[in-house]
Amino acid sequence: MKKLLTLLFTLTITFSALGHAKLEAITPSNNAMLMHSPKELALSFNHAVKAVKVVLKKKKGQVVNFSFKPSKHAQKQFKWALPKLSPAMYEVEWTILGSDGHKIKGSSEFMVH
Questions:
Q1: Do 111 and 33 form a contact (C-beta atoms < 8 A)?
Q2: pLDDT at 7
Q3: 66 and 41 in contact (C-beta within 8 Å)?
Q4: What one-character DSSP code corresponds to residue 70?
Q5: pTM of this prediction?
Q6: How far, in Å, are 63, 72, 91 from residue 60 at the CA level?
Q7: Do 103 and 24 form a contact (C-beta atoms < 8 A)?
Q8: Domain total in the chain
């Protein structure tokens, strides 16, 4: 009986972890060193999600306004046009809502020379 409970617990944890959405790619990539301002910000996930919040800011805290609006429909890929960015370190902070109702947060950095 103890082995059966252990197996069921392990399977529950395994399948629960497999169900969470994960970031597959971000453009500009994490720790990218860019010679020119990027034209867009793009996020790709392994499952369809809703983008709840995406913030782009200079490392010193100045928020960069771009066309982000929370998504109404779940999708795997998101793209937003960016204004011309001045040379600086930038951080992208994102929050998504997975189909299982979990909020997942992440961040990435890049530099424009």
A1: yes
A2: 43
A3: yes
A4: -
A5: 0.82
A6: 9, 31, 9
A7: no
A8: 1
Kindly report the CATH number assigned to the domain that includes residue 103. Answer: 2.60.40.1220
Q: Which domain holds residue 69?
A: 22-112
pLDDT digit string, tens, across residues 73-101: 999 999 999 999 999 999 999 999 998 88
Q: Which residues 6+ apart lie within 8 Å of 24 measured at CB?
A: 44, 45, 46
CB 96 within 8 A of CB 51: yes
For residues 56 and 108, give the distance between their C-alpha atoms in angstroms, rounded to a whole number.
Answer: 10
Structure tokens at 57: 């800011």
- Per the document, the length of the chain is 113
For position 59, what pLDDT does the model report? 87
Q: Are 68 and 95 in contact (CB under 8 A)?
A: no
Which amino acid appears at position 20 of this protein? H
Which residues of the chain register pLDDT less than 70?
1-19
- In single-letter form, the type of residue at position 8 comes to L
Distance (Å, whole) CA 50 – CA 35: 31
